[in-house]
Amino acid sequence: MQLQGALLGAVCARAILLAILSIGIAISTEDTHARTRETVAKDARLAGDRGRTRFIADLSKKVDINVFSLADPYRVIVDLPEVNFQMPPDLGTKKRGLVTGYRYGLFAPGKSRIVIDINGPFLVDKAFVVDERPDQPARLVVDLVPTDRMTFLAKLRDAKSSAVRSIPQPTKPAVVASDAKPVIVLDPGHGGIDPGTAGADGTTEKEVVLAFAKTLRQRLEAKGDYQVYLTREDDTFLALRERVEFSQRKGASLFVSIHADSVPKHTTEASGATVYTLSEQASDDEAKELAAKENFSDAIAGVELPSDRDEVVANILIDLAQRETQNRSIVFAKSVVGEMSPSELHRKSLKSAGFRVLKSPDVPSVLLELGFLSNSDDEKHLTSEEWRAAMAEKVGAAIDSYFAKRVARIPF
What we know:
2 domains; 6-stranded mixed sheet; alpha/beta; 5-stranded mixed sheet; elongated
């Protein structure tokens, strides 16, 4: 009986092992099929001259594309299903014909985008994808020809009027119970097709700010006093307006947009953190230039830029109804700076400018530049888990202090 039991146990064990192996094989096969189905882009190039410029990208298989144009600045946008871009480094930086450069990346979950910058008015003469062949990959082709601005704008109007466009409804702020925990929205800047600035060692802004946001969230959630949300959890692009609307939907009590700056090599070396608040007039030229660069993030990713009347809030400081929100933003900014040592701060640590991502009428908002990726020491800090944890502790302490004052009803 014992022998029979042992044999039966062995048979059962073998059956279980075979079942596990078969599941493993099935999973492995499924992963292999998934990788096979994945679209890969391995190269791209430009051909032609100012009379006709052609953009070509090599793909592992044929895909559907959607191509449209944008003005001011002139751009061609190519939307396609999610693509694994395995391009050579520094691709897209050389000019040719009508094209001044191009970039590519993830635009949204399941959706990739190629943005081609054009040096003047143009028309998309042809845009198509040819099937792969045994001796060559599938090829995405976009042919561009020059035109005048009036013709370009007329074509743009025709394209917009023929498209089915839904009217977006105003964002409704979340209703938050009076005894609910404060809601904090952390906004890691850039993402996806928009990498932000880059360090000498190739560190991208989008990577380090997302890593810091997750570290800060962990610190805040450990206290159990807050509800914490990130505008993006992965390497996905999010337009500036979407970030603001996200914070309003969550009923945010505080919005912190997180970035890492850089300066041109020929300028004076800069380092340390800076905290920005919103203002109609920039505090200095450096703040003005940074705001212009950050506000250009949407254009980099191929988002149509809003006109002045489409801004989330126009002339926010002139409107007396927004003064309290702005004052609270300044109080929090000072609290963040107060938690840091002089060696951790930029020479002028409190600044203001017209950052579009800070233009929420009812949510105190700041933009925190953690440091300068153009500075080798700052780049090392930004990629260090230990440094991120220490910095998150200081920003977290500033958040604790800010809400402690609110609970105590200390006037701002």
